[in-house]
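Notes to self after the call with IL:
- keep both proteins in one doc
- input above output, always
- annotate only the second one for now

Protein 1:
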Amino acid sequence: MKRYLSHSTEETEQIAAEFASTLKSGDVIAYKGPMGAGKTAFTRGLCKGLGLSDHVSSPTFALVHQYGNGSRALYHFDMYRVETFEDLYSTGFFDYLDYGGILAIEWSENIEAVLPENTITVEIRKVDGDPEQREILISQ
């Protein structure tokens, strides 16, 4: 497990950009962390690190956003509202696993039972006493 301490949104994005260099097509990233922890900021950093210039926003209402194309595409999921297998199936999640590219999944706790065995976990925690500081734990 790797541990990082971020003092700003920009630093969170930089940590993610550097982490992106370790990713390959087919990787699945399961985010864990409360609302407002910085999961979307981390995704912005992943895009930068992958050389993608797309505008990154939370996929809360769209369920999934695609950034880039091909084997370096990043598919950004939000599973917050996914409560059943039917909900998950309707997102097209299983198809995305076969597309190649990289999947980054917010609220991965809701689909933990179906995540691939080699899923990478990125846990982002708020640090008490500093509203900007985050602890980022990456398990591969």
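Protein 2 (the one to annotate):
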Amino acid sequence: MLAHASPWHLHALQRTSAEPAEALVVPSRMEWGTRPGQGPDADLLGPDLRGRHVLELGCGPGHNVAHVAVHRGATVTGVDLVGLQIRRARTHYGRLSSAGFVVGHALHYLQATDEKYDAIYSVFGALGLVAPELLLPAIAEQLAPGGTLAFSAPHPRRAGRRPSADDLPRQDFVTLPDLTRLPIARWEFEAERWARHLARAGIRITSSQELHDTTSSHRPTTLLITARRT
């Protein structure tokens, strides 16, 4: 499906209509989960990111890019499939010299760039939405030796769901701001299956965490994985 007709474009279009874009204050922390304050902030990306090159796959309106660039001192590129999201990100944070925003498919961007990154991350972005047998080797190719990959995805056991028993995608849904639900394909793996896919690409998993939204359910909502290129 073309980006202009995708659920992600429609989500961005509705969000833009409801909340016109404007310059924003840079967030004081990075968010990995479904609610503010969940997870370990940007520490997962490395103890000292000053002068490092960092890439976000699926940057949305750019909040995390801005945080990592300003508060962690990195040079950060955010890539997103949806042009409306990149337009919002540039309106919010385009004034930041160490933050850049690019329209593009995560896989195609990785295949085309010559840049090597010290850290690559994704927050409910490309990881899980692009075939891992294609995306993970492309990430490994552009990740510097010893570099960090960190990503969060909807937990495969959220809301009573079950994780994939094979390597195929499953049907999931995107809920738009107007509460319309649109179908998408998503790879919903537990940490062990992610570890196997990462290992095939030459990336070693170093930790996995479950984040919970205690206001609505005791089930985990987010799976957060950190790995390192070998």
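Annotation: Strands lie at 53-57, 75-80, 99-103, 117-123, 143-154, 170-175, 181-186, 203-212, 220-229. Residues 7-18 form the longest helix (12 residues).
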